[in-house]
Structures are given as structure tokens and as C-alpha cells.
Amino acid sequence: MAESNGPLKGVKVLDLSRILAGPTCTQLLGDLGASVIKIENPSTGGDDTRQWGPPYVEDEAGNRSDLSAYFMSANRNKKSVAIDIATPEGQAEIKRLASHADILIENFKPGGLAKYGLDYNSLSQDLPGLVYCSISGYGQTGPNSSKPGYDLMAQGYGGIMSLTGDPEGAPMKVGVGIADVMCGMYATVGILAALRHRDLTGEGQQIDLALVDAQISWLINEGTNYLTSGQAPQRRGNGHPNIVPYEVYETADGHVILAVGNDSQFRRFCEFIGHTDLADDDRFATNPARLEHRDALNAILRPAMKQHPTTTVISELEALKVPVGPVQTVDQVFDTDQVAARQMKIAMQAQPGEVNLIGNPLNLSRTPVTYRHAPPVFGADTDDILSAENPFED
Predict the structure, then answer these.
(1) Which domain, by its residues, includes 282?
(2) Are residues 273 and 160 in the same domain?
(3) Domain boundary among 326, 344, 363
(4) How far apart are CA 23 and CA 165, in angstroms?
């Protein structure tokens, strides 16, 4: 087991979150060296995602564990403790663990922990330095605060589904739970900022983070396009709202991504397809002109690109320094030498057996991430943690 030398070594995290947004945050904190205790409900068998399979990890005899691939995606570098917070004994244990913790993160409905005395207002009276992060669907305030929040609902409410998919098709969600993941990223940033403030002043605070707010924040350029123009953005499939040509094009035997970011790149691209005249055509010579005449340009580009095999398109455009790339399937991604070189696929020894996981993309030259604990089976660390004088000892 690797020893933590991460920048967050010594930071103690009490994780009362489940599913994806909160666990994404606490896994990232754990990768950076923090000690994370994950609290799971014994009456439900733990985190909901333990049952979100197949696939599951099996032992050598073929017996299925409670380690679903979904659960493992966001729960390494944690210890699992089974505590029923609905009981007085469970509440007392949470308060004891919180007294040792720097950070508490939860994703109950607003007000849901108050009846147990585990909300921020209750805990902060005795623990004024606690950094307390609350994640919910719509936040602790506002007319929708009592509504539940799930990734798909956040994508729908927050507008991204109106921008994703075929222009003539139905609204489409992103292929992974990106609203949850980005919410977890914002939670990490907020926690580290609050921790910095706590270290300087001794003051903890509550972070109120809404799944929908986080979703709206990463509308980025399309959201600002609307706020600037007053015109609602439209679905363009793989097309870019502000750059042309910048999308997926069919080749003779597959597809490639073409990302022409400026006019000089466009001129070199035109050389490749044998249409040097396009770079001097007033309709296409500049990016604003190409945006205005997107359909006319694509009517020329699409049949031209289909004349060449994928490998030729990529090799020749790379030689011309025109941004181009493949459209890979997930199995192709993890088979690349780039993934191997960047250690984006890792193996860990879990209780049922070896598991393969996605690596952390952060590369810190002095304090690298570490993979110390494989995703735990439910309640694996309950006895050790609850009997320990120092429960967060990593």
C-alpha cells in the first residue's frame, strides 16, 4: 500500500455523501492525501451505487461482491463504516468522528440532517472550525430547494440537454453523469478555499452547493452567448457555435474530428482537400464569414473529406499542423500508449481481487497523488474505526 505524501496529508474528511457528486469530491481529496471515512447506511446496504451494476467485481470463486464498477469509479482512498444515523447511538458516533474531522460533506435534502442534530448549525456550535459542505439538487434556498436532485434532472433543468444531440432530434443528455462530476469538482474547490480560510482564521463555514447551480455555471460560452445576444442557443450536433469548421466529419472508413481554430489553419486545410480557392472565397475566408455560411461550406467539405481514409486525414493534417484527431471507442482509449504513459489506467488490490480503475489526471511534481486504499466493500472498516482512538489514522 502506497504511503501518502500528498498535499492534503493530515486532512481528515468525514464523508456522509453517496452516489456521485460528493463521492467524486472525496475521492479527489483522498487521492491528494486526505484521510477519508465514508459513512454508509447499514439498513440499505450502503451507497446506492453498490447496486448499480452489472458489472461487479467477483472473487476467484465467481461470487459477486458489492463493488459495482459504478461505485468503484468514485470511492477509492476511503474507509467504509456502517452507521445508522437514525439512531441515537449512530448520531453520537457521527458527532465523535466529526470532532476529529476537518471537513464534513453530505448530500441529504436541505434540512434532512437537522432532525438528527447533524446539520451545520448544530455541529458548528461545538465545532466552529469545521468545514461543512452541503450538496443538494437545488441548494439550501430558493423555491425548488425541497426537490430532489439527480444528474439527469440537473442536465435537463440546467439547459445542457437543449444543446446536446442531433439538431433535428430530441434533447439529449451527456453520456456520463457530468453534472454530478462537475458538482464534485466545484465542491473540491470550495472545500479547499474554506480550508485555507479556516487555517488562517480558525473559522469553519458551510458550503452550500447545488447540482443545478453547478450545471448552469458550466454552460460557459453558450450561456454567455445567450446573455449577450438574447437568443437561445440551438443544438448543432457536433458543430461549434462560434468556430467553423470545428466538428466531426465522415471519412472513407470512419470519422475524424477537425478543429480549425484560425484562418491560417483553414488555408492549410484547404490545401489538403484540394480546394485552395475556398480560402480566398469571401464567404469562407474568415471565421465570422464561415459561421455565416456554415451550411454552404459543409456542403463542400463533407464529400471532400469522405474521399480519404481516416489514417490519411490524420497523418497529413497533422503534418500541416491542422488540429485533427480520432473518434475512439472506450476500449480503444484504454489501449493507447498515451493512456499507459500518463498512467490513466491503474490496478489496485481490492478485497475480492484486483480491480482496474481510471487514474487521477493531476500530476504534481512535489506531492503526487497516491492510491492507498482500493474501493472498500461495505462496512469493511467499521470495527477498526469505531474502536480507534484516532479514527482518521491512514
Answers:
(1) 255-326
(2) no
(3) 326
(4) 28
pLDDT tens, residue order, the chain (394 aa): 567 789 999 999 999 999 999 999 999 999 999 999 999 999 999 999 999 999 999 988 899 999 999 999 999 999 999 999 999 999 999 999 999 999 999 999 999 999 999 999 999 999 999 999 999 999 999 999 999 989 999 999 999 999 999 999 999 999 999 999 999 999 999 999 999 999 999 999 999 999 999 999 999 999 999 999 999 999 999 999 999 999 999 999 999 999 999 999 999 999 999 999 999 999 999 999 999 999 999 999 999 999 999 999 999 999 999 999 999 999 999 999 999 999 999 999 999 999 999 999 999 999 999 999 999 999 999 999 999 999 999 8
Domain containing 210 — which CATH number?
Answer: 3.40.50.10540
Q: Could you give the number of structural domains in the chain?
A: 2
Residue 325 half-sphere exposure toward CB, CA atoms < 13 A: 9
Q: Which domain-ending residue is among 273, 298, 326?
A: 326
Mark whether 281 is an active-site residue: no
262 and 149 in one domain?
no
Domain-located, residue 235: no
Residue 111 placed within a domain: yes
State the catalytic residue, choosing from 66, 102, 119, 180.
Answer: 180
